[in-house]
């Protein structure tokens, strides 16, 4: 996996680099706006480390899945956390913890052999508390629908359902922006009509 990442332009950070980058991901416990949308090289520069200018993403291998780990948070930048798992169930458990900490209801993504391991797809779908569960699809682009799949409506506004404090659990589209009126006239429901005893 590491070799594949490196071939694609990712930089696997060493311990010192990971600490430096982790130190700029958050500011006072919240996302650091200075890194949002920046390139991997710019974020590295902000953190005081050097990576090649053409680096695509900075990856920190971490183990904690709670709020104390900066890499465990949503970062809106080309920075990723990498976790080791002893087996598939352990990997899904870690993913569940990450979702519960900061992404409940939003989107989760699994890369697997969907044809030869359908049980993994089913298990992942059952366990994740997300409205969008993507299989072999880039999470950021796949979640907005239409580009990589046709099950999700194309939208940049993604509902997270009651899990995430939203009223809908699907991609927001035109149907959600139309106000509908319903005029309801009184009509007795005869199933519940009671007659006096004679």
UniProtKB/TrEMBL annotation:
Checking InterPro entries in the record gives: Ald_DH/histidinol_DH, Ald_DH_C, Ald_DH_N
Is Transport among this UniProt entry's keywords? no
Question: Which protein is depicted?
Answer: Bifunctional acetaldehyde-CoA/alcohol dehydrogenase
Instruction: Report keywords, A-Z.
Output: Oxidoreductase
A GO molecular function term, named singly, is: oxidoreductase activity, acting on the aldehyde or oxo group of donors, NAD or NADP as acceptor
Concerning Gene3D superfamilies, the annotation shows: Aldehyde Dehydrogenase, Chain A, domain 1, Aldehyde Dehydrogenase, Chain A, domain 2
Quote the SUPFAM superfamilies the UniProt record gives: ALDH-like (SSF53720)
């Amino acid at each position: 996996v590491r070799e594949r990442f490196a071939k694609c332009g990712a930089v696997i950070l060493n311990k010192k680099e990971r600490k430096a980058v982790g130190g700029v991901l958050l500011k006072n416990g919240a996302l650091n706006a200075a890194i949002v949308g920046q390139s991997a090289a710019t974020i590295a520069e902000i953190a005081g480390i050097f990576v090649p200018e053409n680096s695509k993403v900075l990856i920190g291998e971490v183990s904690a899945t709670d709020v104390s780990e900066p890499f465990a948070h949503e970062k809106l930048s080309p920075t990723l956390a990498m976790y080791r798992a002893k087996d598939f169930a352990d990997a899904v458990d870690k993913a569940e913890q990450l979702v519960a900490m900061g992404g409940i209801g939003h989107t989760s993504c699994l890369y697997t052999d969907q044809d030869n391991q359908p049980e993994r797809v089913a298990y992942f779908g059952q366990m994740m508390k997300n409205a969008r569960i993507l299989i072999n699809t880039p999470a950021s682009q796949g979640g907005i629908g239409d580009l990589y799949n046709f099950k999700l409506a194309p939208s940049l506004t993604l509902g997270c359902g009651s899990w995430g404090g939203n009223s809908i659990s699907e991609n927001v589209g035109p149907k959600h922006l139309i106000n509908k009126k319903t005029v309801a006239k009184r009509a007795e429901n005869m199933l519940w009509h009671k007659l006096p005893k004679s």
